């Protein structure tokens, strides 16, 4: 990419072209809590032949899982409706939705090995935002059971 533009600092050159009204001088801080946000969030531990997921990558997968669990009462309601209908299309959709609650966090972990920390932070932030939004949109009668799961209490 830098060979095409002929510049070592591509971000600076693109900012000059795309945002001429901004006069960014100096270096942009590319760290967050001491980590470079342009690199993947992985840990290299001696003696282990592969990288382990970092804290923010695990946090991102966990917030996605919790936001999916927060929507679980809706999924359960759809499963009940699907069982009453004829044909298997509704059953398959309800099963797929329940399956995705568990698969998307796993996919986040797998893809997070390759993407930068900035994208992982974006995923975590908006999963947390989605949790708050879903909590506010749930009827008050559904909130306690869902929140009990999130804080570890059994119903």
Structural commentary:
It is a single chain. With 155 residues, the chain is mainly alpha-helical. It has seven helices and four strands; from the N terminus they run ααββββααααα. The protein has helices at 2-5, 10-18, 55-70, 72-84, 89-112, 117-137, 143-151; strands at residues 31-32, 35-36, 42-43, 52-53. A two-stranded antiparallel ribbon has the order 1-2. Strands 3-4 form a two-stranded antiparallel sheet. A hairpin with an 8-residue loop joins strand 3 (42-43) and strand 4. Helix 3 packs antiparallel against helix 5 (89-112). The radius of gyration is 21 Å and the shape is elongated. The mean pLDDT is 76.
Task: Considering the chains and any ligands shown, give keywords for the structure.
155 residues; mainly alpha; two-stranded antiparallel ribbon; two-stranded antiparallel sheet; 7 helices; 4 strands; 62% helix
- Described by the principal axes of the CA atoms, the overall outline is elongated
Fraction of residues in helix = 55-70%
Provide mean pLDDT, rounded.
76
Quaternary form: single chain
The whole-angstrom Rg is: 21 Å
> Can you count the helices?
7
Succession of helices and strands: HHEEEEHHHHH
Instruction: Report strand order across the widest sheet.
Output: 1-2
Q: What proportion of the residues form beta strands (DSSP E)?
A: 5-15%
Number of strands: 4
């Amino acid at each position: 990419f830098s060979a095409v533009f002929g510049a070592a600092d591509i971000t600076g050159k693109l900012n000059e072209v795309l945002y001429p009204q901004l006069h960014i001088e100096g270096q942009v801080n590319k760290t967050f809590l001491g980590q470079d946000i342009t690199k993947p969030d992985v840990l290299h531990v001696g003696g282990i032949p592969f990288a382990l997921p970092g804290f923010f990558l695990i946090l991102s997968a966990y917030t996605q899982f919790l936001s999916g669990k927060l929507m679980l009462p809706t999924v359960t309601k759809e499963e009940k409706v699907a069982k009453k209908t004829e044909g298997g299309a509704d059953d398959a959709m309800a099963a797929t939705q329940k399956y995705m609650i568990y698969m998307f966090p796993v996919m986040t972990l797998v893809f997070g090995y390759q993407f930068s920390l900035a994208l992982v932070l974006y995923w975590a932030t908006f999963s947390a935002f989605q949790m708050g939004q879903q909590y506010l949109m749930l009827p008050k009668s559904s909130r306690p059971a869902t929140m009990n799961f999130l804080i570890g209490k059994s119903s």
